[in-house]
């Protein structure tokens, strides 16, 4: 009888991955509703999309980081951001899974 093998980290990471997927959807919807003009060319433009005090935060692995703080972590090489999905992916790539 064959046993089904599971990766040791499979179960604990499912929740953080689900949180990131939900946040990505929220970011895309928020940018769509705000009628953001793309591309976003630099950190300054990106930070204007997520001003300080934005209530939505990245809560992954017990850490909370606001989007305006995550925007600051992007490098020049991360720009331009061509659409809402790319903005969400870049910002959320800075969220920690631990």
The SS-based structural class is: mainly alpha
Overall domain count: 1
Number of helical segments? 4
Describe the biggest sheet? 2 strands, antiparallel
What fraction, in percent, of the residue positions are helical?
A: 40-55%
Strand order of the largest sheet: 1-2
Say what oligomer this is: single chain
User: Can you tell me the residue ranges where pLDDT is under 50 for at least 5 consecutive residues?
Assistant: 1-10
Give the CATH level 1 class. Mainly Alpha
Overall residue-averaged pLDDT value: 77
Give the overall shape, derived from the CA principal axes: globular
Quote the distance from N terminus to C terminus.
36 Å
Strand and helix order: HHEEHH
CATH superfamily: MTH865-like
Quick one: how many beta strands? Answer: 2
Q: How much of the polypeptide forms β-strand, as a percent range?
A: 5-15%
